[in-house]
């Protein structure tokens, strides 16, 4: 599957979302409520990541994208940033074998040049090892920002224009081929845990027609049952992509009125 734009062509939809994108929020508050240091919430957050991956694979979700570290998260206290980096390294070292054994492909998107060599190397090796897996594609967005993504795609088109000596054709198709997640369909369902109701510079381009689901549940408490509730809410939505409700009804009337 490669990216196709919902504003160019209406995608097929099913009761189970093909692609779920999640902002995993509330780790700090989960820990503070328990009088634990904030970083304890991130540690528990990794357990919730594991649970979400397993539940998505079981439900038949094809793509799961998790916002692990935004381009703005560098603004956090140094100790918390360092802790998150160490957690990322440990998770890569410990979990990639299990992901691979379960047929899961791992991708990491974002401006990876800001990470140290060790992390970049672990990412490259994990992506290579799991590249041919097809059960579920797990994407970790790390040092990712939706605006960064749009800018880097625009830059690539500009570079292409300069190389070929004339302006590259710019349309949704040519542009979106340069987005970091050009290998995935647009998310069908966006989930944000932790009670906030904003996108926080996540997949700005790709969320154009995505269904949104916000829950008060803190990320460490977001388990298989919580995911199932989110999917059930999604299944009740009417995805019109700009059309009317009547147009979504079975084709009977139109078919009946066609000349034989
Ligand atoms: C938001 O909660 C969470 C993060 C910025 C980090 C998310 C990281 C993990 C779940 C663990 C690492 C993940 C992987 C894939 C290895 P917050 O700290 O903003 O919580 P708060 O809003 O309660 O303060």
TrEMBL record:
Gene Ontology terms describing biological process: polyprenol biosynthetic process
Cofactor(s) listed in the protein's UniProt record: Mg(2+)
EC numbers for this chain: 2.5.1.-
Annotated Gene Ontology cellular component terms: cytosol
Record has Magnesium as a keyword: yes
Claim: Metal-binding is one of the keywords in the record: yes
GO molecular function terms listed in the Swiss-Prot or TrEMBL record: ditrans,polycis-undecaprenyl-diphosphate synthase [(2E,6E)-farnesyl-diphosphate specific] activity; magnesium ion binding
Record key words, sorted: Magnesium, Metal-binding, Transferase
Binding, substrate: 26-30, 38, 42, 70-72, 74, 76, 192, 198-200
Active site: 25, 73 (proton acceptor)
Principal EC category: transferase
Cofactor remark from the record: Binds 2 magnesium ions per subunit.
Transmembrane residue ranges: none
Sequence positions that bind Mg(2+): 25, 211
Described function: Catalyzes the condensation of isopentenyl diphosphate (IPP) with allylic pyrophosphates generating different type of terpenoids.
Quaternary structure and interacting proteins, as annotated: Homodimer.
Family membership: Belongs to the UPP synthase family.
Name this protein carries in UniProt: Isoprenyl transferase
Species assigned in the record: Trinickia terrae
Taxonomic classification: Bacteria, Pseudomonadati, Pseudomonadota, Betaproteobacteria, Burkholderiales
């Amino acid at each position: 599957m490669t990216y196709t734009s919902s504003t160019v062509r209406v995608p097929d939809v099913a009761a189970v979302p093909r692609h779920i994108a999640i902002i995993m929020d509330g780790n700090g508050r989960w820990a503070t409520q328990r009088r634990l240091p904030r970083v304890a919430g991130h540690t528990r957050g990794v357990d919730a990541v594991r649970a979400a991956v397993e539940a998505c694979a079981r439900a038949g979700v094809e793509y799961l994208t998790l916002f692990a570290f935004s381009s703005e998260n560098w603004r956090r206290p140094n100790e918390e940033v360092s802790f998150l980096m160490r957690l990322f390294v440990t998770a890569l070292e410990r979990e990639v074998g299990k992901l691979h054994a379960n047929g899961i492909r791992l991708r990491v998107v974002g401006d990876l040049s800001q990470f140290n060599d060790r992390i970049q190397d672990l990412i490259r090796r994990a992506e290579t090892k799991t590249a041919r897996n097809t059960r579920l594609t797990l994407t970790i967005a790390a040092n990712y920002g939706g605006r960064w993504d749009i800018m880097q795609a625009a830059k690539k088109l500009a570079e292409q224009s300069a190389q070929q000596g004339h302006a590259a054709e710019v349309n949704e198709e040519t542009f979106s081929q340069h987005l970091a997640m050009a290998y995935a369909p647009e998310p069908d369902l966006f989930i944000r845990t932790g009670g906030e109701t904003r996108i926080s510079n996540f997949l700005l381009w790709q969320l154009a027609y995505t269904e949104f689901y916000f829950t008060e549940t803190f990320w460490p408490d977001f388990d298989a049952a919580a995911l199932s509730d989110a999917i059930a809410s999604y299944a009740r939505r009417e995805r019109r992509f700009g059309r009317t409700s009547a147009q979504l009804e079975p084709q009977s009337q139109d078919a009946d009125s066609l000349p034989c």
